[in-house]
Each structure stands twice: as structure tokens, then as C-alpha cells.
Amino acid sequence: MGKWIKSGSPWIWLTAGAVSLSLIAVLGLLLLIGWKGLSYFWPAPVYQFDIEQNGQSQVVIGEVYERQMIPLTQLAEAGVDVSMMAGPKEPRYLIKIGNRERVGLDFMTILGSQIKQKQLADGIAVIDREQNGKFYGYPVSYIDDDQRYPVSELHAGLEQAQVVRDEMARIKQEDFSAINWQLEELRVEERRKTLAQSLTPAEQAEFAAKREALNQQYLALEKHLFALQSRLERDAFVVRDMTGEEVRLPIEQVLDVWYPNNLTTTEKVMHWLKQVGKFLRDDPREANTEGGVFPAIFGTVFMVMLMSVIVTPLGVLAAIYLHEYAGRNRFTKLIRVAVINLAGVPSIVYGVFGLGFFVYMVGGTVDDLFFSAQLPAPTFGTPGILWSALTLAILTLPVVIVSTEEGLARVPSSVRHGSLALGATQAETLWRIVLPMASPAIMTGLILAVARAAGEVAPLMLVGVVKMAPTLPIDGNFPYIHLDRKFMHLGYHIYDVGFQSPNVEAARPLVYATSFLLVTVIIGLNLTAIGIRNHLREKFRSLEQ
């Protein structure tokens, strides 16, 4: 036994066991998050409960959201009559009933003893809406221009309504945006000439004529928009809710209708894929508790890519100076200690630094020099995606510096000496020989930087991220890429939905779904970087040998 311990085998097995347990824990966590998040899009069965509560009978229709076994002692302490309950525990059901504008609640709690009958609600429809969440009811008819039609005509009506909604969204997001952009450009140009005291009466009249022409275009689009809106308002979907009352739902609010209890397994899978697709490509609504997360996906990926473009050259240049040019003295040692200590600074401190230095100092100066015509409304003197990328670049800079230095140190000195002996300068040796051989280590540093930056939230709350961004940082208006705009981020979306939502219980599955999506995005970015690193490693393996 003593010889076996001295051989080091126990430590090998201990290390292997620790790595295995870590991998199992990570995979288990990912599977849990993925299951909790992706199961939200599966069409759950809808039940009809006949209950008796406080001596009154009631019909409740909804999904079984959660089931718990509650000790009778706990129910008794809460003032519940437990005399008619059998067993030490009583089942408690959390029922998602929807119909928020009529009931006032998204959920209802029912004890097992209160349920007289439970059955699948045959023919029940789940209606996804623009506002007020889902509606559960029995379809009655479809109304088109005050004419009642069978429910079978609803599908064609929904397709028509979606075409009209898409046209309205295009007008708002593209046409109105383009006109507003041109009006703002005219205002800024006129103000710039006014400040320079070079505005002539002829130019002033020209500005007024252009502004009037744009206003007329705006009014024409507005008239067309109102006409489309009126087309939607005349159609409706009539359903009967759980109280037996017929409810008229405007077709403009109805996004989708499905019958979860009548779907086959294949249809359920297709419905699940459709809902996941909507989650990935749609904009959020209802205070981020409904709809999709496309703006947050776009903002996260765009910010990380911008950060990578900034941090890579800065980190590589700093590492080259420290390893190739700086002398081995106390000053260099002090710089290395500072770089290592920067990696341990809390991220919120970087956020405060970014707000004070980048936003207020640098951004305010840029506004004074180049955007004085827009003042007092700031352009770059306010949080935006550029300052977020720069802040995270500073935050991840130590990782890239240390990783690049290690890569430079692994390049054999004989390679440098051979290049210099053949007449190459030190700069040419670095650019053509050393850096290509150290590129796998540079990519390793970038991988670590991306993994950390993509999940950071605290600094972004100060320097650019917002709950809801009306427009993306990229659009069809010059200069097409707007680095001064605020943006949405998956990490902040998780925080907002999980802790700032007006209905936390209903939004909880979205927290899991968005968390799984954020992990997936980070893994995707890392796998891309790992693929590039492995390609570079194979390319320069022969030189290392």
C-alpha cells in the first residue's frame, strides 16, 4: 500500500475522479436548465376541474403548472380546515388559468380535497395574444366584417391578420424610421449652419421645403397605417371561457391558436419547433415575459464580437512589448503584477470606470468636438454598445495578455535566432514567424475572454444595456452601424425577467429558456474560436517541431 501511495497513482485517480465529478455536475446542470427551459414550449394538456371551495361550486380550466405535497400541519397553521383530508399530506396544484384581463390572476391554487372531478378539456383552445398572455376557451365562431363564420375559417383569418401585422411592423420599423432619420439629419444640419452663423434665407427655405415633403410622406404612411389597423379591428374570434360566457377577442391581438388536447405526437413536436423558432426570432413583449429574445441574442453576439476586435490587438501588443522589448527590471515586474491584479478586480468596478471615463469623459469630449449640433442631447456622451465593448475589453485584457505571453514564451529561441541570422529584422521576425506560431495561444486567450465577457451583466448595466431597445445597432440608415445606441443582452434579460418581472411565477420558465440560450451562444462562440485555434495549431505544428 505504501509503495502504491508513493507511486502517485492515488493522486492520479483522485484528479481523474474530481474532473469526472465536475463534468457530471456541469452536464447535469445544463440538462436541468435545458429541460426546464425547452419544456416550456411543449403544448401541455389543459384540464377542466370541477371544484368546491367555501361551499361554492366552480369550474376551472387550465394547465397543471406545479404539484406539491403539503403536510397537513402546515395547512392547519395557515388556517385551512384539514378535518376532511386523509393522510399526512395533501396535494396542492398550481393551475395556470390565463385569461388575465377577466380573472385578474394567471394562476390559481387548488387543494386535492377541493377537486370533485378532473378531466381533459375536450376541444379547448389555447390562444396566444399580443397582450394579457394566453387565453383558454372553447371556440364558438369567427367574425369577419360583422359576419359570423364557422371556426374552420379562423386559420385563413389568422394568416390574413399576420400579413397585415407584418406590413404594419414594416411601416413602423422601416418607413417611419427612415423619415424620422431624415428629419433629424435636416434638423442637425440646419442647427449646425445656425451655430456657424452661415444659414442663408434660401437655405432656410430649402430646409423647410424638404421638411414639409417628409411630413407629407409621413402623413401618407400614417393614413395607410390607420387603414390597415381598421381592417384588423373589424375581425374577431369568439370563444367561451370557463364561466360559460362568450368573449370576443379582437383578431389583431390573436397571434396563434392550437388545441393541445387534440394534437398527435408528431403535431406536438412540430408545434414545439414552431414555438422555439418564435422564441429565437421574435421581439419581446409584455415586459419581456412573452415573445422572443432576438434583440437580446443580436446584442449579445454583436457586443462580444466588437469586444473581441478591440481586446485582441491591445492584448497582443501589450504582451509583445512585455515579452519581446521590455527589460527585465522592477518597472516591468510592477506592470506584470498590475496585470495579474486587474484580473481579480470585481466587474462592477470596471462598470463604474467605464461610465466615468468612457461615457462621461471620452464620450462627452467627442460630443463637444464632433456632435455639438445635437447638444444638449448626447450622442456618444451616454451609455451605448461601443462603451460596453470597451469596458469589457479592459475587463478581459489581462486574460489575453497572460495567454499571449505564454504563447510567445513557448516559441523556441532558435527560431528567432535563425530568422535574425538570415537578415530579417526583429519586427519582421515577430510578424512572420513568432506571432503565427503563438496564434493558438492568442486564440486561447480570446476564448477565455469571450467566455467571461458574454456572461457579464453588472458592468453592462452602467454602460449600455437596457431592458428594451426599440431599434438594433444595425439598420438601413447611414452609417448603418450605430455604436452609440443602447442594446439588449441575454444576461440582463435573465436578471430582468427573473427579478424585475411583474409576474415572476409566469416568467420563470423563460428564465430557464434564456439561460440555456445564453450558455448555447457562449458555447457556440467558444467552439468557433476553438476550431480556429486547432486549425492554426495544426498549421504551425511542423514549425514548433
From TrEMBL:
SUPFAM superfamilies: MetI-like (SSF161098). It is a multi-pass membrane protein. The chain crosses the membrane at residues 12-35, 293-322, 334-362, 385-408, 429-451, 510-532. One of its GO terms (biological process) is phosphate ion transmembrane transport. Residues 297-529 form the ABC transmembrane type-1 domain. Its main location: membrane. It is found in: Cell inner membrane; Cell membrane. CDD domains: TM_PBP2 (cd06261). GO terms for molecular function: phosphate transmembrane transporter activity. Keywords: Cell membrane, Membrane, Transmembrane, Transmembrane helix, Transport. GO terms for cellular component: plasma membrane. It holds the Pfam family BPD_transp_1. PANTHER family: PHOSPHATE TRANSPORT SYSTEM PERMEASE PROTEIN PSTA, PHOSPHATE TRANSPORT SYSTEM PERMEASE PROTEIN PSTA-RELATED. This is Phosphate transport system permease protein PstA.
